[in-house]
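Render this sequence as a predicted structure.
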Amino acid sequence: MGTTKQRRPLAQVRAAIAAERRELAAMLDGLSAGEWEAPTLCGGWRVREVAAHMTMGFRHSLARTAWELVAARGSLHRMTDRCARKDAAAHTTRELAALLRDNADHPWKPPVGGIEAALGHDVIHGLDITVALGLDRRVPKDRVRILLETVDARTLTFFKADLGGVELRADDLDWSYGTGTPLYGAAQDLLLLAYGRRLPPGHLRGDPAGRFLAGQG
């Protein structure tokens, strides 16, 4: 149990990314106008801002990204927030879904973390949407496993996830992480915690569950 840190074949991860993007595009196509305006697990972002952010890497060249970073005075957080809001206003919801689908095989990946980070980017932001909307979408377990294998102290630090004194225990996969009081949940929900998210009620079980509720602390 826990993190194995093994690297998956590149073709396997790329296939997982392409499948995830196509499935998320289909999910976005099925949302109502009201759901596109609903908040997500990403603080301050509606569904449309998250979708715009997910497609940013396909639309922005390296030069434009560098310019946007300079315009944001070197703050990556400020840059991504500014771009997400601007791009969400510039594209229709249909266009945002199509951008994700049409770029299913795009080789974009974040500047750190390798190809697994690209899968993480899609899976986590997809969950930011579906969990917040109460949609019962289960990310295929083979994709979740790839990401669970990358969870370590650096992951928690990067995403500012405080899991001190807690042991995450998946109840649908043979996986655990950390030491302390057990906290149980679906593997994809525990993955969200490792990426610094807080969840709506009903997703977690165990004494520490209240510590990770959305809107707490």
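Summary. The chain is about 50% helix and 5% strand. Residues 16 and 23 are 11 Å apart (CA to CA).
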